[in-house]
Amino acid sequence: MDTKLCTSNGSCSGPVSVNHLEMASSGAGQSLLTTVDPPHQTKKANVPTKRRGFRRCKTAPLVVPDMNGNNEKLPCPESVNFGMLHSHLRWVPVYLTVYLVLGTICFSMVEEQIKGKKTNTFLDSLYFCVVTMTTVGYGDLVPGSNLSKLLACGFVLSGTTLGGLIVSRALLMNQNVGPSDILKEIETNKVRRKLFVVSILLSVLFLIGHIVLIFVEEMSFVDAFYCVCTTITTLGYGDQSFTSKGGRFFAIFWILTSTGCLGQFFIYIAQLSAQKRQRALVEWVLTRKTSRLDLEAADMDDDGVVNAAEFVIYKLKEMEKINQEDINQVMKEFEELDVDQSGTLSVSDINLAQSSSTKM
Amino acid sequence: MDTKLCTSNGSCSGPVSVNHLEMASSGAGQSLLTTVDPPHQTKKANVPTKRRGFRRCKTAPLVVPDMNGNNEKLPCPESVNFGMLHSHLRWVPVYLTVYLVLGTICFSMVEEQIKGKKTNTFLDSLYFCVVTMTTVGYGDLVPGSNLSKLLACGFVLSGTTLGGLIVSRALLMNQNVGPSDILKEIETNKVRRKLFVVSILLSVLFLIGHIVLIFVEEMSFVDAFYCVCTTITTLGYGDQSFTSKGGRFFAIFWILTSTGCLGQFFIYIAQLSAQKRQRALVEWVLTRKTSRLDLEAADMDDDGVVNAAEFVIYKLKEMEKINQEDINQVMKEFEELDVDQSGTLSVSDINLAQSSSTKM
Q1: Is residue B161 classed as helix, strand or coil in its secondary structure?
Q2: Cβ distance of B270 and A304 shorter than 8 Å
Q3: d(C-alpha B337, C-alpha B73), whole Å
Q4: Alpha-carbon torsion (B285, B286, B291, B297), positive or negative
Q5: Average per-residue pLDDT in chain A?
Q6: Are A344 and A338 in contact (CB under 8 A)?
Q7: Which of A39, A106, A349, B106 has the most other CB atoms within 10 Å of its CB?
Q8: CA distance B169 to B171
Q9: Which residues cross the membrane (chains A, B) (predicted)?
Q10: Angle (deg, nearest 10), helices B190-215 and B245-287
């Protein structure tokens, strides 16, 4: 019997002779003697060898031709395509630009209704938009009429909704990873490296803001530090803010990047902590001793032995990657498909299931 | 042979007589004749029927006695215990109280260094703490000395860090659910109901804030609306804020609950959207036609038929619940345990694995 021998990284090393000798295969104490030749001994075919090859490189087929040769596998619906989600996030800079352009146009039109120190209509409107959208809200420029107040309300409500959705979606999207992805990410220190880069960027932005406030806005050392802190955290008391043309121009870019950076910083911190937790669980599951009671619990079909798929399900359940409800759900479909109720699916089951569904 | 019969919701209906008659159990097309009597027919034992019973209620045993009778299953490490995470979140009100009490004491001590309209030392300090911690930052009370400015910096930096970690942890924690949990949650409209409750609460808080600002702070209708919007979103320009004793006392509770509510509102919106996406994927996987190519791809051990566990793994992979890397990781352990390399684990494998590890 020829099967493929696949290494643990998923690559297959060609056909290997496998011979199964089943002896006394009944009850719990069942013992199976099988032999497998290592790949370099493939010449010695028909010599009983021990290893049984598992096909690990298989994934769901892209298209499945049915009995008439038609491709019957439906495409995955767009609403569930995670690639779509990624591309949604890729649109964030576009949303942001449209949002700020619309806001700037609106506030430029009601500029005379805005109270506070003015420098340039366009610059002040854009600065007001950024300070409002990021919820810094210094209060150095405030709407002075009912119309401009309502406009500011609409602008900040829609802005925080957009921001809240983007941040939470980014957080949830990054959670769509398996325990192995997490191990890999930890191994390559991917998240830790990202966190390091964001921390450096945040420090640089902090420093640049501090320097600009001292030299352009002519603040004292402590006042500049205080203004940076109250801005990055979006606190924005407003007793210290950007009042010059140059300062406001700088503020537009600096506030957007530094508040965004701090948000990203928290996202990475949370991911790192979640990954550490999940990594500890995966390691514990994979390193603890397997006992006879484990075997009994893992034996789904009660045949006295645990096959590879049963073992995988048992371990993934222990890793809290899947749960019994997930399995029950799929088992319902399995039992419907298993027309001859043999406990296994074969081509005849599929043909029977299809012909019976055609008749109905 | 007696086993438990379990329903798809995981409950077991007591011992049921099961009879396995294995016939021609080699190669492809393997057929197993087993019998499971439904609970009400337990009297008619030994009458061969066709359905094979799958034990669905099994979970990992709590303790596993080894060959010497010692309990060898290690307890799950605390760092990976998701119950711990829940209890961490349960401590949030305690953290919040300690944080606000410490902040109020600090700012009470430097109260004469804080500029703005004062009402009562304790009340103003607590109000200043809440306005700072939530990053509303009206600016009606601002630190007027270097010491108080640095204190405010430390307070807002630690507060936003704490808040950011709590929110992101709450978001990530709620993602630790399987596709079936998600289906159940959707079916029972759990998240939708939570979202509905939070929306109602948010509307009530909005209305109460509006009314208090009109009657206690004597604002106009539009100004009160504007102040509510700028506060809930933590914008806080500060041109409209709480200036009276009663207003500030109300503000302490109102700002904390309304900003918290808005955050929770966004968390539920994000969860609902993630669940809808995952639900669509699960439904698509469970309803699409299974073909012969699917069977071939699902057959992990290449024996020509797909057993229940193989089918479950194939479908969960398609649901993006698990991936090939997860499976490979567990398969490494399986191959180490499968000492006789039979492709299945039996008690003799476990004994061999344990004796060989003892020798080493």
Answers
A1: helix
A2: no
A3: 17
A4: positive
A5: 75
A6: yes
A7: A349
A8: 5
A9: 91-110, 122-141, 147-174, 195-216, 249-270
A10: 160
Residue A90 predicted with pLDDT over 70: yes
CB contact under 8 A, B169 and A270: yes
Query: In angstroms, what CA-CA distances link B192 with A85, B86, B186, B273?
Result: 21, 21, 8, 10
How close is the nearest chain A Cα to the Cα of B5, in Å? 12
CB contact under 8 A, B286 and A333: yes
Among the partner-chain residues B10, B143, B278, the one whose CB lies closest to the CB of A324 is: B10
Residue A172 is predicted with a pLDDT of 67
Q: How far is B97 from chain A (nearest CA, A)?
A: 20
Q: Could you identify the residue written with the tokens 């299953």? A: B73
Tell me what pLDDT residue B77 has: 52
Closest CA relative to residue B141, chosen from B270, B267, B283, B243: B243
Q: How confident is the model at residue A340 (pLDDT cuts 50, 70, 90)?
A: confident
From chain B, pick out residues whose CB is under 8 angstroms from the CB of A225: 149-150, 153
Q: Are B326 and A329 in contact (CB < 8 Å)?
A: no
The pLDDT tens digits for A265-314 are 888 888 787 778 777 888 888 888 888 888 888 888 888 888 888 998 99
Task: Decide if A255 contacts A135 (C-beta within 8 A).
Answer: no
Task: For A219, list phi and psi in degrees, rounded to 5.
Answer: -90, 165
- Among chain B residues, CA nearest to A339: B51
- Contact: B326, A317; criterion CB under 8 Å: no
Instruction: Walk me through the domains of chain B, giving residue ranges and CATH numbers.
Output: 2-41 (no CATH), 83-278 (1.10.287.70), 289-322 (no CATH), 324-360 (no CATH)
The side-by-side arrangement of strands in the sheet containing A2-6 is A2-6, A12-23, A31-36
CA distance B32 to chain A (A): 5
Closest by Cβ to B135, choosing from A80, A234, A277: A234
Closest residue in A to B320 (Cα) is A176
Say whether residue B147 is in contact with chain A using an 8 A CB cutoff: no
For chain B, list residues with pLDDT below 50.
Answer: 1-74, 78-83, 176-180, 182, 187-188, 360
| DSSP per-residue codes, B59-79 | ---S--B-TTS-B-PPPPPGG
Q: What is the pLDDT of residue B223?
A: 94
CA distance B7 to B13: 8
For the ranges A123-127, A181-185, A337-341, the one whose mean pLDDT is highest: A123-127
- By the CB < 8 Å criterion, does A278 face chain B? yes
Residue reference for tokens 């009601």? A110
CA dist B22 and B27 (Å) reads 13
CA distance A172 to chain B (A): 7
ipTM of the complex: 0.72
Of B32, B161, B321, the CB nearest to A342: B32
What single-letter amino acid sits at A273?
Answer: S
The A residues from 321 to 350 touching B (CB cutoff 8 Å) are: 321-334, 337, 340-348, 350
Distance CA A174, CA B168 (A): 12
